[in-house]
Structures are given as C-alpha cells and as structure tokens.
C-alpha cells in the first residue's frame, strides 16, 4: 500500500507551510490515530530521518505541533505514535506552552 505513495511527488516545504495545519495536526486533533499512524509510516518509508523530524515537529500558525494537538485531544495512542516518530515535547507554542 505505502509503496504506491512514492509515485506522488511533493515538496516538503509545501507540506510544512501551505496551511495552518498539516494532515498530522488534523489527525492528532481529531483523535484519528489510524490515519496518523498511516501518515507517519508513509513519511518514514519515503523520506530521510531529518525530513521526518522536521514534518513531525512542524508548527501551525498558533505554534502548535501535532504533539500539542494530540496531548490537548487526550489521545494517548496519537501521543505514542508521534513520540516514536521523533516528535519533540520541548517545542513551545505561541503562548510558550510545551507538552511537558
């Protein structure tokens, strides 16, 4: 299934900056842990570790990372998946709040 994702070309900068929230933010905020896990698996299979970390720790306009969204939503599975993918819990949002 994921091998077919490689045929689509996209720019990681577009993924990071094109909108307020990435698909990871939206999945985490809405407790869609299967979708989040699928996206993270596809990221790991298709890009370098540095790119995965950059995407996983991308901040929306409020400075929130997908991990902020998962913690605020109270979804332990999403939190677990994001941390295993390299999400940082020390990144402050625009209110200087971290997920610690």
Keywords, please?
single chain, 100 residues, mainly alpha, Serine Threonine Protein Phosphatase 5, Tetratricopeptide repeat, 0% strand, Ankyrin_rpt-contain_sf, Ankyrin_rpt, ANK repeat
Structural class: mainly alpha
Give the topology string: H per helix, E per strand: HHHHHH
Beta-strand share of residues = under 5%
Percent range of helical residues? 40-55%
Concise description?
It contains 6 helices and no strands. Helix content is 52%, strand content 0%.
Can you give a write-up of this model?
The chain is 52% helix and 0% strand. It is mainly alpha-helical and 100 residues long. It has one domain: Ankyrin repeat-containing domain (Serine Threonine Protein Phosphatase 5, Tetratricopeptide repeat, Alpha Horseshoe), CATH 1.25.40.20. The longest helix has 14 residues, at 33-46.
Helix and strand arrangement:
Elements: H1 12-17, H2 23-29, H3 33-46, H4 49-56, H5 66-73, H6 76-84
Helix pairs in contact: 2-3, 2-5, 3-6, 5-6
């Amino acid at each position: 299934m994921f091998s077919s994702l490689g045929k689509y070309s996209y720019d990681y900068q577009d993924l990071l900056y094109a909108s307020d929230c990435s698909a990871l933010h939206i999945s985490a905020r809405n407790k869609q842990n299967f979708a989040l896990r699928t996206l993270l698996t596809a990221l790991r299979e298709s890009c370098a570790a540095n790119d995965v970390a950059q995407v996983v720790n991308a901040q929306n306009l409020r400075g929130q990372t997908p991990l902020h969204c998962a913690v605020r939503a109270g979804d332990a599975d999403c939190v677990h998946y994001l941390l295993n993918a390299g999400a940082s819990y020390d990144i402050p949002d625009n209110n200087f709040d971290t997920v610690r």
